[in-house]
Design goal:
The complex is a heterodimer of chains A (727) and B (210). With 727 residues, chain A is of the alpha/beta class. Helices cover 50% and strands 11% of the residues of chain A. Chain B is of the alpha/beta class and 210 residues long. In chain B, helix 2 runs parallel beside helix 4. The chains are: A alpha/beta (727), B alpha/beta (210). Chains A and B meet through helix 2, helix 8, helix 9, helix 10 and helix 11 of A and helix 3, helix 5, helix 6, strand 9 and strand 10 of B.
Chain lengths: 727, 210
């Protein structure tokens, strides 16, 4: 849960999580195991098609939530179920407490429900003098510890068997061993008694089927079956977004939910309940059955053109499973009640700005959650939109305002970068042989010592835009006319990447243009929640390039490229600019794909027999642009001996301004990456993104590693044979 | 459906159910299914072999519940009269108690719960069980071993193929329908898989010819 008042306090809490060795190891093991389990579970299935179907069906349900509710209510009531509707979390808790009073219930057993976590139901019922026992093992453990879940599916993933043994020793009054198998059996017996004593069972609902008035419950432990069978009263608490037209929709989600959550084809139990089922503890042999639907902002959300997509979520928890930040800090620091990427978004809507404001800044924007989401939600985009809303509501932060102001005027912004070149002289440059002239000797004042985990590069003496006129070749009968989109990092920090790119194009009859009025792509503005300026710079770039003249707009930075590809999304409400943005975006391609797929350069152009090279796949290239094969093939073409390393497509921890905001997390993510690089035995690490180059090269050099880092364009230029023109 | 398709479905069901630790056997008749149950019950040491928790030190109240359980008990509430009679006789001959009601008197646990299922889903190794009767729900949850008998003729390739059957089950008023796939499981402590957290510790599926 979020208690931090400001970013500083939040960073301190994050720091404590980073220092928790058990947590770090548990999270790391999980992060390594999950992708394989998921891939195996989806083997032979078209996961992408299934996800697209789910997204479409959920969108349809969400847009008819009210009709589905009325239909469900009619059918459920006809079967003797009492249907309640709560506008707020407090109201839901009141309704359930009232039911307990009216039905004269004292002991409650609960099966897992994130919706009940959302309303803090247990606190409310306990304050009313009721005894509540969570029966899902993980939930019971965290209930005994008086804390919230750290994962939506595995709520106690942050705890060790020793901690659980200690806890169970207290509960039973006997010393319990730290063997998982035995601890599970202790819970089995202890909880069995609680079911026997209970007069009310509370469950959640994974599905509420409008056409029958039945609910569906998905569990592995089977506790929901006992919770809904033994006590004489059953209360199901469900968010309105769980309403779905029919069984078929539920079965569709059921194909993805367990596979995406835990890599299971299906959970041990899926239970469908309609009407007042037989209950021998009830007077008339019929269960008293209530369903409480929770709104808590869902209806408003369903009408929001942007955020209605969030209601597609099926609560599989996968967005946490793949998140590099969650992997470092765990769920207590990466959520409030709902965990993971979806948690960052839902916290704002369900628990308010105060709980969400620090959290939403902790997204590194690596797109891993988006790629794995069972409902195809554009989670990173939603997170940034929440950040933008919070900024608009609370007033924009100074640094954010300054950046926005500076970037809105290209001349001013580029002037600032040029003068920064002189300003950095006062920090000095490193003088050792390896690092000479490359890195700043002292960290700029605004960066604390926590930023010392990597070397910070110095700005180039001459930006690419000043060099370009001399580099441009006149090409007769060009095969391609291309515009280079430089991007700030390439233009001002690493012009050599663009120069190397030009070198590889030589003799290929590529006519290269570099429109001087191009500016920042706008991604840093999105990261800061500065959406107005983000749109302004997008317009400047769209104006700078004439799609009619160009075959491609080539980016050496995939973060820029994927952001440029997303320009049409910025103008959804502006048909004229939307069209222009679409024409622009259609031309955008990353450097590696252009060379591999379009130029189709062969081995004959490059010296073969080169060193061993590992490849780091930038987030915005593999997930943002969907490019996986091209760069790896290109390494082979370029004469390198490509060696595979672990987790090539996992983020390096850079994330632009992220690494400045959360240096300790960035540094820990980087550490894993550097370990993988060194374990691979490669002499060279090649990647396609200036941000990754900065992070990884800075980290390796800080470590004193022998492994060199190259942008793909440099790697190719270094082995390119002179001449070898295209016919 | 061709014989080849049926065989394929049978193989898939078996592989998928075994993948979640089910024991899968083919049986030619109900009589053979009951022999299997009795044999299983005979081999099983009541409440000990499977570490169901009785030997663990517990709080007094939970301990008390455990002590209410004595003789080996087979529960089979959803069989027809004739079948139940035949199973009961076989159980009695072997010194086991066999019941078809009164499960609430045995909440500490029974040794084996037997149920005739309404269908099976091959691609996940799932059985479909009409659980409207509270006795059926309890027998299949509080038993240490759950034996599910599934007629081969009622196997479906996947959930979509089973949709009509499930729809009919769910459409009744009231209705309580279960998909069951393997024993009750958890990985909530250190992601270590453990079977039998609340329900059965073992699941056996008997694929019935007739």
């Amino acid at each position: 849960m979020q208690k931090a008042h400001d970013l500083k306090e939040y960073r301190e809490e994050v720091g404590q999580a980073l220092d928790n060795e058990f947590l770090r190891k548990a999270m790391d093991n999980f992060a390594r195991a999950y992708p394989q389990g998921r891939a195996k579970a989806f083997a032979g299935m078209d996961a992408a098609a299934l996800i697209a179907e789910i997204a479409e069906a959920k969108d349809e349900s969400v847009s008819h939530m009210e009709e589905l509710y009325q239909e469900f209510k009619k059918n459920a009531e006809a079967a003797g179920v009492k249907v309640h509707r709560a506008r707020t979390a407090a109201e839901a808790n009141e309704i359930i407490a009232d039911i307990a009073r009216e039905e004269n219930c004292k002991n409650i057993v609960k099966s897992k429900s994130m919706t009940a976590e959302e309303t803090l139901l247990n606190h409310h019922l306990e304050a009313e003098g009721l005894q509540v026992t969570e029966t899902d093992l993980g939930e019971w453990i965290i209930q005994l510890r008086h804390e919230g879940p750290t994962h939506m599916v595995m709520p106690a993933i942050h705890l060790s068997r020793d901690q659980v043994a200690g806890l169970f020793s207290q509960v039973t009054g006997s010393n319990q061993p730290n063997e998982v198998e035995k601890l599970v059996k202790v819970a089995r017996r202890e909880l069995r008694q609680r079911y026997v004593d209970a007069d009310m069972g509370i469950s959640g609902a994974n599905f509420c089927l409008a056409d029958s008035g039945a609910i569906g419950l998905v569990t592995n432990e089977g506790n929901a079956r006992l919770v809904t069978t033994l006590p004489r009263v059953h209360v199901a608490l469900a968010g309105l977004e769980k309403l779905t037209p029919s069984l078929h929709d539920a079965l569709r989600v059921l194909k993805a939910l367990p596979r995406n959550a835990t890599g299971q084809a299906i959970t041990s139990y899926v239970t469908w309940i309609k009407g007042q089922s037989e209950c021998k503890a009830a007077e008339d042999n019929k269960k008293s059955y209530h369903i409480v639907f929770l709104d808590n902002g869902r209806t408003a959300m369903s009408k929001d053109p942007l955020f209605k997509e969030v209601l597609r979520c099926i609560r599989c928890g996968a967005c946490a499973n793949v998140c590099p930040v969650y992997r470092m800090v765990g769920g207590h620091q990466y959520g409030h009640i709902y965990i993971g990427a979806i948690g960052l978004i839902l916290t704002y809507f369900f628990h308010g700005r105060d709980k969400a404001k620090n959290l939403v800044k902790n997204c590194i924007n690596c797109q891993a959650c988006k790629a794995v989401c069972a409902a195809g939600i554009d989670l990173p985009r939603m997170i940034k939109e929440v950040l933008a809303r919070i900024q608009d509501e609370e007033g924009h932060e100074l640094e954010s305002r300054l950046l926005s102001k500076a970037m809105s005027n290209r001349r001013f912004f580029h002037g600032l970068l040029r003068s920064a070149r002189y300003a950095q002289k006062m920090f000095g440059t490193k003088t050792s042989a390896d690092h000479k002239g490359k890195y700043q000797r002292h960290l700029p004042m605004l960066l604390s010592k926590e930023h010392g985990f990597r070397e910070i590069p110095k700005l180039a003496d001459t930006p690419f835009r000043d060099k370009f006129p001399k580099l441009r070749e006149k090409v007769e009968h060009p095969r391609y006319v291309v515009g280079l989109f430089g991007g700030c990092a390439e233009d001002f920090l690493y012009p050599e990447h663009l120069e190397s790119g030009m070198e590889t194009f030589k003799g290929q009859r590529v006519d290269v243009r570099y429109p001087m009025s191009q500016t920042c792509c706008g991604l840093p503005l999105m990261m800061m929640g500065e959406t107005t300026t983000e749109r302004d710079v997008a317009k400047q770039n769209i104006r700078a390039f004439d799609p009619a003249e160009l075959d491609y707009i080539i980016c050496h930075c995939p973060s820029c490229a994927s952001h440029l590809k997303g320009y049409p999304n910025l103008f959804k409400n502006d048909p004229e600019w939307h069209l222009l943005a679409q024409r622009f975006a259609d031309k955008v391609i990353d450097y590696s794909s252009f060379v591999q797929e379009e130029l189709e350069m062969g081995k004959e152009h490059f010296e073969q027999g080169g060193p061993r090279a590992a490849y780091h796949s930038p987030c915005h290239l593999c997930r943002g642009m969907g490019v996986h094969e091209a760069p790896r093939k290109l390494l082979g073409t370029g004469g390198y001996d490509y060696v595979e390393m672990k987790e090539e497509e996992v983020c390096c921890g850079f994330g632009g301004t992220y690494s400045v905001k959360f240096p300790r997390i960035s540094s820990q993510i980087l550490k894993t990456k550097l370990d993988h690089i060194e374990e691979s035995g490669a002499d060279l690490l090649v990647t396609d993104c200036p941000g990754c180059v900065m992070q990884i090269r800075g980290g390796l050099d800080k470590r004193g590693s022998k492994v060199k880092v190259r942008h793909m364009s440099e790697a190719l230029a270094e082995r390119k044979k002179p001449g070898g023109g295209h016919p | 459906m061709s014989t080849q398709d049926k065989d394929e479905m049978l193989r898939t069901f078996t592989a998928k159910a075994e993948a979640v630790s089910c024991v899968v056997e083919e049986v030619p008749s109900m009589a053979k299914a009951f022999d299997y149950v009795v044999d299983l019950c005979g081999k099983k040491e009541a409440c000990k072999l499977l570490i169901s928790g009785c030997e663990e030190a517990l709080s007094k109240k939970a301990e008390g519940l455990c002590e209410t359980k004595q003789a080996k008990l087979v529960a089979a509430p959803n069989l027809n009269k004739k079948d139940f009679g035949s199973l009961k006789k076989k159980c009695n001959d072997n010194g086991f108690v066999c019941i078809d009601e009164g499960m609430r008197d045995h909440l500490a646990g029974t040794d084996i719960g037997v149920a005739l299922c309404q269908g099976g889903i091959a691609d996940t190794g799932t059985v479909i069980l009409d659980s409207d009767s509270e006795e059926t729900r309890l027998a299949t949850m509080i038993s240490e071993i759950f034996v599910a008998v599934v007629p081969k003729s009622k196997l479906f390739a996947n959930t979509y193929e089973a949709e009509d059957v499930v729809s009919k089950l769910i459409g009744k008023d009231p209705s309580y329908t279960a998909f069951i796939t393997g024993a009750s499981r958890t990985a909530d402590i250190e992601r270590v898989l453990a079977l039998g957290v609340h329900g059965p510790l073992e699941m056996h599926v008997l694929l019935l010819d007739k």
